[in-house]
Structures are given as C-alpha cells and as structure tokens.
Amino acid sequence: MTNFREKSDPMIYEEKSARKSLIEDHSLYQQIIDALPVPIFYRDQNGIYQTCNAAHEKLIGISRDQLIGKTVYDVQPQEIAEIYARHDADLMESPGDQVYETKIKSSDGTFRDVVFQKAVIRNEAGEQIGIVGSIFDVTERRKQEQKLERAKESMIISSHMLHKIRAGIIIVNTDFKVIDSNESFAQMMGEDIVELYDTIPGLRGADISELVPDVIYKMIANIMSSGENNLERDVKYQNKLLHISVVTIYKQRVVGAVIRDMSAPVLVRDEIINRAQRVNKQNIDTVQQIAFLLGENAAQTEELINSIIESYRYSDEE
C-alpha cells in the first residue's frame, strides 16, 4: 500500500500542477469567454471593471483595455449608471442570483432593452471579490411584444367599429373560419344565422361555407386563392338583392366581405351614384342625369336601377 502511494504521488502532484496552471492561465479563460456570444463582464468589489469579453466590447463600443479600471459611471449615462450601481450594492449585500431588466447605451448611441443576470464572485477564502454578469439584448423581443399589444388594441377598436356598421361584414382566415363578423351580416343571412350569432359572438371559428350561400363562398375562395384585391357582385338571396364586395386584407391569408342590402332605399341611391361615377367617370352629363332622375322621376329611376343591376347581376342560382 505504501509502495502504491509512493508511486502515485508524482502523478497526483503533476495533475494538481496542471490544474493550477490552467487556473492561472488567464489568456485561456479570456479566449473561452470571448468565444461566447453573450456579453460578459467582471467588476471588483469597488465596482471597477476588471475584464469583459468580445461580445461586451461590441455591445457598448469600448474595448477591454479601455474598459478596465473604469466604473459604470465612466461608460454609461448618469441615470443608467445609478441603476447598475444600486443593483450591484444590493447584490453585494444580499448575495445570490440577480436578474433585472433595464437599458444600456450601445455602441451606435442608441439605447437597447437588456436583461442583466449577475452573481457574486468569491476567492478561495470565501470572501466576496466582485460581481460577474451577462447581458441579454431583448430589444427586438420588446418591439414585437409592443407591436402585438398595439395589434390587440387595434383589433378591439376595429371590432367595436365593426359592430356599429350597418353593412354586413365578415372576415375569414385561410382555413375559411370566421375571424369576426357583425350582427348586420347575421341578419342578412337569415334567422338561423342570427340564432347562431347570439350563441357564438361574432360567429368566431364558424365555417364560412355553413353561413353563406354557395355563390358568396365561391367569391371568398376565389379571392383567397388568387390574392386579387377585390371582387364585386350582386346576389339574389332570400328575396333580397345583396351587393357583395370581397376584399383581400392579408394576401392569401385573410379575406373580408362587405354585404349591403340593396333593398334599403338609402343604399340604393348611394349605390346608383357610386356605380354611375365609376362606370361613367368621364361623363358628367350622365351623372347629372342620374341625380335628376333620383329626385324627379321615380319611374325612370326604377328603370335605371334595373339596368345597372342587370349589368352586375350574379344570381345565387349560378
């Protein structure tokens, strides 16, 4: 047993020596942390930078040689440096893992949203000798979160507006499921759809093919697959003449349909003028004649309505 120890002692000594040389090889440690993509720094118990890695240099635009010997007050604006220093003091007083979000002035002068993760470093005697920390840039994540929040707010506002519009409106996704619709749409589609609307607010998630006549479904499917901007038709449905406008909201992802009941006198008048302006955009005399007919001659007005509707007719029997 004694012989074994005597023979193995040199090996143990060499192993310990090798470990010690590795520990004391600061250049190796620097190479290791420089290889990490996350900015890393080390400040001593007095808040003075002792080292950092290449990612940290890139983030704040200050080289390691320039950073060593400085404090946070030398490299960041006063208000930001005070935040860092306060958290450092809290960590030294109550050692543990510290995580918090703040801002940092980057190399291009802009302020980035970052998350700090820090911990206390101790020497072999267990004494606190400083703080090591890493920095995670979450700027783009925060922008996306803010964008999503604004989108949610816009959806809420749009939904409220949607339900105030007289025209029937329905919005569907690429799976032909309803994203939202208003009560006017349900009323135009009939009593069964109204009952369903009362049960499912906005008819959200319903299959559009179960809600509209086949001709309207085909219009929606056409725009969804083609990605065209819009498609308009007149459709006879349940003894009503409906004007259907299908539009692309997000190309080949979200499509909306606006449905107007052409039986309503006000809508009829507006639609006649609107169509006359489109079809006869350069013919002012024709537009004036239509306006005159609307006010002065009901019989001729009806004849004009029929002729315009006939040119746009898209029967639900097709």
Account of the protein in words:
With 318 residues, the protein is an alpha+beta fold. It folds into 3 domains: 22-137, Beta-Lactamase, CATH 3.30.450.20; 158-263, 2-Layer Sandwich (Beta-Lactamase), CATH 3.30.450; 264-318, no CATH class. Helices cover 50% and strands 24% of the residues. The protein contains 13 helices and 10 strands. It has helices at 2-24, 26-34, 54-60, 64-67, 72-75, 78-93, 139-162, 183-189, 191-199, 214-226, 265-279, 284-296, 298-312, and strands at residues 40-44, 49-52, 98-105, 111-122, 128-137, 168-173, 178-181, 230-237, 240-250, 254-261. A 5-stranded antiparallel sheet has the order 2-1-5-4-3, sandwiched between helices. The chain has a 5-stranded antiparallel sheet with strand order 7-6-10-9-8. The protein is rod-shaped, with a radius of gyration of 36 Å. The protein starts with a helix and ends in a 6-residue tail after the last helix. The model is unreliable at 4-8, 10-19, 279-302 and 304-318 (pLDDT under 50).
